[in-house]
């Protein structure tokens, strides 16, 4: 395997039909830790997006007809290249998104895991033979690629979120037009550069960057696009669903969360504090499955509050590229303003600061612990997307289940208990698509990822992860006697 020089991965052009293109109109990509402009990328619009869709449409039949074993080999080469270039990929990710380099390295491995998983799933048998009502007919189903897929990904996990969509789509035999977030396009372009090196044919994978409204409108309106997959806010997801309805596209939506994190009084407190730190402060709290509301049972509320505050004091805020940094910047000044607004609202309504709420320069926000939080505060009703841990006291199981489910979101939930009966009972009753029991980290390529309620529908990862990129065709063979 030939390693590419690091500068070859620092791609700032878009990929359409196998060609790297530029455009007269462009915009800067900045490092949120320093404000430094690290790249200038093309600002594409509807015309280039249409070109990418048409290229994907032309490439579709050949890619779909390729034997599954050959597609699997392309994905395996892509996986090997991602691992071989993990360090420069992580550095690009930290520069454009801000997270600590240790977390960026973990994200690269996460994305590689999805590519490897679906390279293996590519060769799994699909379809089934059905029991016929009579001897004259044979009934069966086959699964076929849906066609051109539009993939829109967020800025908080710019490598892993794209890999999690591209891998099953390509494995299923679909072609893709991907639009990464304009705040963090460089990781997507680097990932596409390695896909091209792995042998993904021209037109099979296309990357367009630019105005989200213009590009999104073309992706949703163009009848050649047969499936749209989106990770992002619930408000934008609802808009895309409405737009896709005109051409009756398949859609997968992984939308906002408001995850409950419940600590029962019989919990292992060491594990609960560690779980809260991992779930709440990873990526500076900018994760859709982040612990957004921390419910602590009354009997251990004071102890847990003090122990969590002590752990937060040990966090080190700074530039993610610097050694020892454990919490990087928020993505921009709007994210900082939102986190501060949530804290200010909580304080005005009777909460108190246990740790944090110090004003830091730039896009940095001090990890903060709030106590005496109630459900009428913004920090409990909305997704903060920042390093703010609001602690809510509860009395009993029925009380906390009712509070935990009192939200339109239903992505992830967490709870800590030593009671095995309670573990099964609460896991069933939480209205979420994913549950972490005695752990704060749940994502893995081998399990289905997705939510219920207004957190969306569809699943990514797991043994059924390719199903959202496939159509089921029923075949009836008659006159056999």
From TrEMBL:
A molecular-function term among this protein's GO annotations: oxidoreductase activity
CDD domains: ALDH_F5_SSADH_GabD
Origin superkingdom: Bacteria
EC number(s) given by UniProt: 1.2.1.-
One protein family per Pfam: Aldedh
Active site per the UniProt annotation: 254
InterPro entries, per the entry: Ald_DH/histidinol_DH (IPR016161), Ald_DH_C (IPR016163), Ald_DH_CS_CYS (IPR016160), Ald_DH_CS_GLU (IPR029510), Ald_DH_N (IPR016162), Aldehyde_DH_dom (IPR015590), Aldehyde_DH_Superfamily (IPR050740), Succ_semiAld_DH (IPR010102)
Ranges for domain Aldehyde dehydrogenase: 20-474
Keywords (A to Z) from UniProt: Oxidoreductase
Family: Belongs to the aldehyde dehydrogenase family.
Protein name: NAD-dependent succinate-semialdehyde dehydrogenase
């Amino acid at each position: 395997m030939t390693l590419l020089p690091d500068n070859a991965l620092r791609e700032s052009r878009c990929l359409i039909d196998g060609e790297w293109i530029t455009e007269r109109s462009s915009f800067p990509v900045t490092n949120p830790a320093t404000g430094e402009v690290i790249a200038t990328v093309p600002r594409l619009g509807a015309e280039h997006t249409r070109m990418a869709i048409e290229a994907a449409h032309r490439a579709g039949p050949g890619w779909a007809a390729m034997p599954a074993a050959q597609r699997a080999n392309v994905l395996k080469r892509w996986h090997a290249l991602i691992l071989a270039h993990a360090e420069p990929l992580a550095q690009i990710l930290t520069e454009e998104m801000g997270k600590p380099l240790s977390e960026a390295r973990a994200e690269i491995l996460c994305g590689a895991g999805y590519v490897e998983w679906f390279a293996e799933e590519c060769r799994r048998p699909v379809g089934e033979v059905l029991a016929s009502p009579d001897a004259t007919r044979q009934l069966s189903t086959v699964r076929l690629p849906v066609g051109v897929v539009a993939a829109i990904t967020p800025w908080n996990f710019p490598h892993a979120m794209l890999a999690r969509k591209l891998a099953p789509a390509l494995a299923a035999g679909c072609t893709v037009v991907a639009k990464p977030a304009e705040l963090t396009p460089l990781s997507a372009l680097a990932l596409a550069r390695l896909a091209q090196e792995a042998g993904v044919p021209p037109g099979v994978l296309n990357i367009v960057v630019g105005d989200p409204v213009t590009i999104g409108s073309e992706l949703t309106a163009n009848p050649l696009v047969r499936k749209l997959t989106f990770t992002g806010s619930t408000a934008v997801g609802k808009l895309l669903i409405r737009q896709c309805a005109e051409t009756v596209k398949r859609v997968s939506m992984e939308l906002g969360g408001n995850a409950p994190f419940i600590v029962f009084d019989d919990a292992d407190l060491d594990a609960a504090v560690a779980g809260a730190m991992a779930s709440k402060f990873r990526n500076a709290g900018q994760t859709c499955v982040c612990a957004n509301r921390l419910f602590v049972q009354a009997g251990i509320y004071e102890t847990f509050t003090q122990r969590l505050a002590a752990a937060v004091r040990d966090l080190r805020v700074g530039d993610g590229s610097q050694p020892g940094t454990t919490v990087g910047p928020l993505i921009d000044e709007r994210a900082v303003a939102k986190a501060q607004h949530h804290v200010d609202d909580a304080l005005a309504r009777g909460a108190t600061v246990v740790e944090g709420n110090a004003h830091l320069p730039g896009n940095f926000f001090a990890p903060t612990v709030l106590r005496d939080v109630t459900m009428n505060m913004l920090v409990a009703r909305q997704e903060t997307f920042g390093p703010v841990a609001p602690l809510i006291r509860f009395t009993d199981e029925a009380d906390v289940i009712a509070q935990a489910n009192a939200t339109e979101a239903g992505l992830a939930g967490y709870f800590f208990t030593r009671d095995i009966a309670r573990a099964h009972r609460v896991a069933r009753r939480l209205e979420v698509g994913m549950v972490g029991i005695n752990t704060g980290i749940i994502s893995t390529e081998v399990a289905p990822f997705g939510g219920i309620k207004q957190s969306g529908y569809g699943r990514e990862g797991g043994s059924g992860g390719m199903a959202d990129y496939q159509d089921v065709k029923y075949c009836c063979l008659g006159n056999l006697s």
